[in-house]
Write a structure and sequence with these properties.
Blueprint lengths: L1 H42 L18 H8 L3 H7 L12 E2 L6 E3 L9 E3 L2 E8 L3 E8 L7 E6 L5 E6 L9 E4 L4 E8 L2 E8 H6 L2 H4 L7 E5 L7 E5 L2 E5 L7 E7 L8 E6 L2 E6 L6 E3 L3 E7 L2 E6 L6 E7 L6 E2 L6 E5 L3 E7 L2 E6 L16 E6 L3
Parallel strand pairs: 17-21
Antiparallel strand pairs: 1-25, 2-3, 4-5, 5-6, 6-7, 8-9, 9-10, 10-11, 12-13, 13-14, 14-17, 15-16, 18-19, 19-20, 20-22, 23-24, 24-25
C-alpha cells in the first residue's frame, strides 16, 4: 500500500511538472517572439521601394480601424461616431509610416527614403496640421509632415537640419512660428520655423533641410520632451521615468523668440532660454500637454501599457499638477504621444503605428484622432 501511494505521488508530481512546463511555454513563446520582434524592429530599418513619402494608412483600412477602436467605447464614440459625416470620419492618416522622403545628413544633397519614421509631436495652425517624426535608427534626418487641416490631404514634408527626437511641436498664432523640440550635443533645445519659410519650402527643389528662425538652448531641464503655446508663453516639459517631471515657462518677446540671452557654451556662441520662475510639477511618464481656458490636460504613456489623459484645474499659486490633483483621468490605447488643442477640439497622436512598434500586441493607432472637448 505504501509503495502504491508513493508511485501515485510520483505520477502526480510528474504531471504537475509537465503542466508547469506547458504553461511556461505558452507564456514564453509569444512573449519571446514579441520581445525579439521588438528588439529587431527597433534596430532595423525596413527596405522600401517607394521614392516619395507614403500617404496611405500603414496598418489598417478605415473600416478595420473603426472595428479595432470599438472596444474603447467612449473614445470610439467621440473620435469616430460624432465625426462620421466628415472626411475619414474625422481622422487623419499619419503620412510617412511606410516611407518618408528625407536625407541622411545635412551635407547629403539627394533624397533618401526612410521606412522607420516614428511620429512624436502634433500641432495645428489655421490651415495646417503638423506632425513631427524621427528616424528610429537615427540614420535619417527628422521631418515634419504638413497636412491640410480641412481636406486631410498630405501636402509636403519639412526636412529638419538634425536627427533629433523632435518629441513635440507648438504653433504660436501671434508671431506665426512653428516651434520644434530638439537637442544638440546632449543639450535640450526649442527651435522655431517661420510660417513664411514653411510656405516657401519645397524639399525637392534643392534637397536641403529647412532653416530655423530661432535656435535656443534650454539648460533648465534635462530634455525638451513636450511643449505647448498659450497666451504668449511657451511651456516646455520633460519626460521622466524615475520621478516627477517639471514644466518650464518661457515668455515670447517682441521679435517672436522666447526670452533668452546670448552665452558661450561648449566653445560656441548661442542663445539660452530664460525661464519664468513659476515651475509646474507633474507626474512621471508625461508625454504631452495642452490648455483649454483654465484647464490643463496632460497625456501619459509608458510602453505597451494603456495610455491615459488627465485634466487639471489651473489657478494662480498652484504649481502641483501631479496625479493626486487630477480632476479626471481616462484610459486610452497604448503609446499616446502629444495632444494639442484647436479651439475646443483636441487632437491626439499615437506612435504605435510606427514600424518599430506595430508588431507589438494590442491596437496600433495609425491615425490622428480628434475630440470635441467643449461638447
Amino acid at each position: 500500500m505504501k509503495r502504491k501511494k508513493q508511485e501515485k505521488e510520483k505520477k502526480r508530481g510528474r504531471w504537475k511538472r509537465r503542466l508547469l512546463f506547458i504553461c511556461v511555454l505558452v507564456f514564453l513563446i509569444p512573449t519571446g517572439y514579441y520581445g525579439i520582434d521588438f528588439v529587431y524592429r527597433g534596430q532595423t530599418e525596413p527596405q522600401v521601394s517607394a521614392v516619395q513619402t507614403s500617404t496611405d494608412g500603414a496598418v489598417y483600412s478605415l473600416g478595420e480601424f473603426k472595428e479595432r477602436l470599438k472596444p474603447y467605447r467612449g473614445l470610439y464614440e467621440e473620435a469616430v461616431e460624432k465625426h462620421k459625416d466628415e472626411t475619414d470620419s474625422g481622422t487623419y492618416v499619419i503620412p510617412g509610416l511606410k516611407a518618408t522622403m528625407t536625407v541622411r545628413g545635412n551635407r547629403d544633397r539627394k533624397a533618401s527614403v526612410c521606412g522607420g519614421m516614428t511620429p512624436q509631436g502634433i500641432t495645428v495652425s489655421d490651415k495646417y496640421l503638423f506632425i513631427s517624426a524621427y528616424c528610429h535608427t537615427k540614420t535619417h534626418n527628422s521631418v515634419i509632415y504638413v497636412i491640410d487641416k480641412e481636406t486631410h490631404e498630405f501636402l509636403k514634408e519639412l526636412v529638419l537640419p538634425n536627427k533629433a527626437h523632435v518629441g513635440s511641436l507648438a504653433y504660436d498664432d501671434e508671431y506665426h512660428n512653428l516651434w520644434v523640440c530638439g537637442s544638440r550635443n546632449g543639450v535640450a533645445q526649442v527651435n522655431a520655423i517661420s510660417a513664411e519659410e514653411i510656405e516657401a519650402y519645397h524639399f525637392t527643389e534643392e534637397y536641403r533641410p529647412i532653416r530655423f528662425l530661432h535656435v535656443n538652448n534650454i539648460l533648465d531641464i534635462p530634455r525638451s520632451s513636450f511643449m505647448t503655446y498659450d497666451h504668449s508663453y511657451l511651456y516646455v516639459g520633460y519626460y521622466s521615468t524615475k520621478g516627477n517631471g517639471m514644466i518650464k515657462k518661457y515668455e515670447l518677446q517682441d521679435d517672436g523668440n522666447i526670452q533668452s540671452v546670448r552665452v558661450e557654451y561648449d566653445g560656441q556662441h548661442s542663445r539660452q532660454g530664460v525661464a519664468d520662475e513659476d515651475d509646474l510639477e507633474i507626474s512621471r511618464y508625461a508625454q504631452g500637454m495642452t490648455f483649454l481656458g483654465d484647464m490643463l490636460f496632460l497625456s501619459y504613456s509608458m510602453g505597451i501599457t494603456p495610455s491615459r489623459m488627465a485634466a487639471y484645474q489651473v489657478s494662480d499659486g498652484i504649481r502641483d499638477y501631479t496625479d493626486e490633483m487630477a480632476l479626471q483621468d481616462i484610459r486610452l490605447p497604448r503609446m499616446l504621444e502629444q495632444i494639442c488643442m484647436d479651439g475646443g477640439t483636441m487632437y491626439l497622436l499615437f506612435e504605435s503605428g510606427a514600424y518599430a512598434y506595430r508588431g507589438l500586441p494590442g491596437m496600433a493607432v495609425d491615425r490622428v484622432l480628434k475630440i470635441d472637448i467643449l461638447e
